[in-house]
Hints:
The protein has helices at residues 30-36, 48-57, 74-90; strands at 13-15, 21-23, 27-28, 64-66, 69-73. It is of the alpha+beta class.
Amino acid sequence: MTEMETTSPPTTYLPDGSGGCRPAPLVLTESELITMLRLDEPGGPVKPAETIRRYRDKGLLRGCKVGRVIVYPLDEIRRFLQVKVASDNRN
């Protein structure tokens, strides 16, 4: 495979707040992650930020601190979802 034939991961999109979508950044803030995982929608957890923190505290979702903010790399979010789907499908 040559350099030109390499494949890139599929583009991930986030709602843009006006009914459309925009490409997700390479790192997401907690609020962007909550939106991406749809934790803020009706029927989701009452406190979505606590859900994210619980996943992080259990070591299921890894973030990194940049300045005063914890951000979540998009590749890590994809990994987390693959593991979660596989785990949920076994139960």
